[in-house]
Design goal:
By secondary structure, the chain is mostly beta strands. It contains 2 helices and 26 strands.
């Protein structure tokens, strides 16, 4: 083998290895989401030093906007969105070339006026009630509904601590929150957006439920709730502190279709049990990115 042939083979091998290395770097998952009170949103991820990346954001999980581009200077990359205060809810993902992070994370802020509010956590998270509602005063309560015992659970702040500090709110569930103060406050839910085929059972009789994904809209048409004749949806008007009923009879809503906000729960009186299923497939096409 002459010298020129050897150089050609070495060059071909280097190109192959270089291409393989580039292809092996896929976008990592995002973690450690945190929403500063009434302010920025932060998350972290890990990348090899020198890796170029882009952070994308969305408010509808369909169209994604380029927030920033950067190069990893350290293995742990931290991103802080200082514009988060402008949005009630926002979602994030990472892009490396044609590769997207396998998970989507985000936040949703829910207003808590004086009195009662029906709330829901639309994200998959390990955060507990103690994590979500820190430094709330005596008299604060959070009640979920036990469908097997047919009664509200009891949880609240007693002597400066939550009675059931490790209780969680999962997507599809809901609770009644009581703000004992005279001030408007808020809670920020953070975590991962559920993807794929999602489902929550709807028993016959009464239950408290919420959307499985952080999206607003018409309960049946947009969010896929399995409504049937005889069902009644009870939505709580937090400003007027009263329930608004939405009966479904003869194939239609007799008092208008219920429209829900992100992080809002509701009562459902179901005639027959069923499952609320929803499929969320977030597009990985780079063409969905608006620069």
């Amino acid at each position: 083998m002459n010298l020129n042939s050897l150089i050609q083979k070495l060059s071909a091998g280097a190109s192959f290895l270089g291409g393989r290395k580039a292809q092996s770097i896929t976008a990592p998952p995002l973690g450690n989401p945190y929403r500063f009170p009434y302010g920025p949103f932060r998350f972290r991820t890990r990348l090899p030093r020198g890796t170029e990346y882009s952070v994308l954001s969305s408010t509808d999980l369909r169209t994604w906007t380029l927030n920033t581009q950067g190069t990893a200077k350290e293995e742990t990359v931290e991103y802080v969105d200082s514009e988060a205060f402008k949005f009630t809810y926002r979602f994030y993902r990472l892009r490396l070339g044609q590769s997207f992070s396998p998970n989507v994370i985000g936040y949703a802020s829910v207003s808590l006026p004086p009195g009662f509010t029906m709330i829901a956590n639309p994200f998959e998270t390990s955060l507990t009630v103690e994590d979500l509602f820190k430094e709330w005063p005596e008299g604060t309560t959070l009640n979920k509904f036990d469908t097997s015992l047919f009664r509200l659970s009891e949880n609240g702040v007693n002597c400066g601590k939550w009675i059931n500090a490790y209780e969680k709110l999962n997507p599809g569930e809901g609770a009644i929150f009581f703000n004992p103060t005279s001030d408007y406050k808020s809670v920020s839910f953070v975590g991962e957006v559920g993807q794929g085929n999602l489902s929550v059972p709807i028993p016959s009789g009464f239950s408290i439920r919420s959307s499985l994904v952080p999206q607003p809209g018409n309960l049946a048409d947009d969010l896929g709730f399995p409504i049937a004749d005889g069902d009644v949806i009870h939505v709580f008007d937090r400003e007027r502190q009263k329930y608004v009923l939405h009966p479904y009879e003869n194939g239609r809503w007799t008092a208008g279709a219920p429209v829900l906000s992100v992080g809002e729960a509701f009562w459902v009186a179901k005639t027959e049990p069923g499952n609320w299923t929803y499929r969320l497939q977030i597009d990985d096409s780079p063409e969905q990115v608006v620069t």
